[in-house]
Amino acid sequence: MLPSCSPWLLVAATLVCVGQASNSRAAPTPVNIIFDTDMGGDCDDVGALFMLHGAIERGEAKLLATMGCVSSEAIGPALSAINTWFGRPEIPVGVLKDPGLLVGPHYTQELARRYPHRLHSRKECPDAVALYRKVLAQQPDGSVTIVAVGPLRNLANLLQSAADESSPLRGPELIAKKVKRLDVMGGNYPPDAKPKDAEWNFKQDPASAALVCTDWPTEVLFNGEGGSTNSGRRATYEMPEHNPLTMAYRLNHGTGYAGDRLSWDPVSCLVAVRGAAPWYAVVGGGENVVDAKTGVNTWKPQGKGKHSYLVLDRKKPKAEVEKALEDLMTAGKGRPTSLLFDTAYYAIAGMCQITSRGSASAGTVAIKAFDQDEKTAWHDRAKSSWIQCQYVDGRKYTVTSYAVSSTDKNRQPLTLELSGSNDGGATWARLDYQMEPGFSERMPRREFSIAEPTKCNIYRLSVTAADGNEGVQISAIELNEAIHCQPKVVATSVVIDRKELELPVHGRATLNATVAPTQTFGREVAWSSSDPSVAEVRRVGEQIAVVVGKKVGSCTVLAKIDGVQHACKVSVSRSTLPDVWSYSELSAPAIPGEIAYADGAFRLTGCGHAMSSFWQRVQDQGVFVSRPASDKFELSAQLKGLAPNVGGPSYNRDSRPPSASGLMIREPQSENCGRFVLIQVEATGALTARWRDKSGDVDGGKSKKLGEVTLPVRLKLARTNQGIELFTSTDGKVWGEPRFTHQANFNGDSRVGLFVCSGNTFASTTATFDLLEFSK
């Protein structure tokens, strides 16, 4: 859901405590939960359901049923798919049978299409009210917590339900007998005395919200606090790449939110499972009144009312709440069976670099074969050609089969050859060859198995055109891995693709593990360093890790699974950076970066969403290589190269910002959302000035477009009597007037240097600077 955000107001109220007081101790008995969701309108519903499965994993909850509260055709199958992902296909799924309420389409269609499940259509799902009555009737009295994170139509229908074969009780009596508490994500809190706008969930079906708030017979806890807290980022890179949560978060909002989303629904699940304290207080003893026409809610303090609402403890760092949310979100261990996952699915999100034979714009054209859009296609008029997918940041994946779609009958390939490489394309191993692969107007998609699958960093598809055809056309390529986790099958070996590793301080390297047998029930590899102060190891996804050099020395990195392990010896040499310079990663990007310096050139590799992002938890991300800034100085350098966003600068359909690099002066790096001034060049060619005037501001700062440039370009940042001045030059000799001047007084320990970010937490990007000059 997408509720509106309400301002923080001080209210005089009775504060009561709900649930457990500690987030570190599991509840003595599991909480019986029914989850009622509008999954599809927003992705945080998936994060919330993942949390409930994580709570099951920890013995903290029992999920009695999952209910869809909107009329979407795909919501029931999507809920079934997620329950099946966690190995719990038996969890009942009910859906709203009323037509016309938020029909869609939504990302749930893709979840239902991609992931195995037992309910294949809305028609196969039982009516939510009938299922509610059946499940409630079977539970002990006063034992059920209902978590409702969407419009309240199901609950309104339940209130109005009559006796049936499940129970002789009418809806209100059945609820009063079996339900302990209703947790509702809906409404604005604290409610304004003169409210103007309704919160999104209540606004979709005001009559149902009004009925539930008036007639529900048990305690009701309302949550409007999720708009203050982010979650999901950690889950999307710690969990396996093929999990439904990563797919839902990307499909719903692109990568513009960097895997994060505001946590309305996850907060409700956290509180339902573990209680409000220590993160929230509860304002109780009142009545939440909803206008049946508008959905606007107001609060009537009554002393003995059954309604209450959450208030975030402003003394607690939000990071503590976010950690609690993500700890539970990642606790569940999905065990996919009969899953065919396209390892290039996230190409458009930046996890693959797609290239092809041909012109300089080949990357822009080639991505059309990997963009999950049947209406686009890669084509080449040559008699023979190739297109390839390289996983970024050194990742390797196993491909057990590949599929090729060609919808133009006049340009369908005559031959296909799939090859793999692990040395940057210097050598190739043929994995499959098809002569006359059988394309036709009736069968435009053909899929072929690979006899001996192996993990590769690059897969190349070579094609030839039939005689008389104008080259080849391919609308889609899938590089699939068949995943089938079989119970009681344990790993007998794990092998890292490198036995020894040498890297400098602030350098990085990627390690890929291979687990055998492939049908092992637990596929996730645990990584560790014998001395993290020498080399830190960060897991990225299921079987991949990135090793980062921290100080000179040696250590061992281990990959472990099911009691077997494999080691890689790591030697870390001194940093290549000149002594006056230092390296830092801002705001902890998911993928580690690195710096290399040689022959006067700096090569920065960095991950991160963007400087001055409006999305608070990923503000000011990237890599910053800096030196102390004096009272007056000039720093100039040539930005020689900047890797573009995937598919080229003209093909960024995601909402994420473009990769960017430039020169920046910044307050001490420990300062969160500190003051800075930055001149940056974006992958689109845009030249932009960015700045923040007040430390701690979370508004994302300000920016001004300065025009367009082409690389290479000389940049200069100077502190003068006039302020911070930003320049560009084509030759480094003629600078002209400043492109931008900003008045700002930075303290004595501010730093100035080079910056890069990828505009993406799924992958890093690289910028190269040379001809650097610094003068006081």
Percent of residues in β-strands: 35-45%
- Percent of residues in helical segments? 10-25%
What is the alpha-carbon Rg in Å? 28 Å
CATH architectural grouping of the largest domain:
Alpha-Beta Complex
Q: Biggest sheet, open or closed, and with what strands and sense?
A: 10 strands, mixed
Instruction: Please tell me the overall pLDDT.
Output: 90
- CATH class category label of the largest domain: Alpha Beta
- Pick out the low-confidence regions: 1-27, 647-654
Number of strands: 47
Description:
This protein is an alpha+beta fold and 776 residues long. It folds into four domains: 14-329, Inosine-uridine Nucleoside N-ribohydrolase, Chain A (Alpha-Beta Complex), CATH 3.90.245.10; 339-483, Galactose-binding domain-like (Jelly Rolls), CATH 2.60.120.260; 493-573, Immunoglobulin-like (Sandwich), CATH 2.60.40.1080; 582-775, Jelly Rolls (Sandwich), CATH 2.60.120.200. Helices cover 15% and strands 37% of the residues. The chain has 13 helices and 47 strands. Strands 1, 2, 3, 4, 5, 6, 7, 10, 11 and 12 form a ten-stranded mixed beta sheet that branches. It has a seven-stranded antiparallel beta sheet with strand order 34-37-46-39-40-41-42, with no helix packed on it. Helix 1 links the parallel strand 2 (31-37) and strand 3 (61-68). The longest helix is centred in the N-terminal third of the chain and has 14 residues, at 44-57.
Compact summary:
The chain has 776 residues and is α+β, with helices and mostly antiparallel strands.
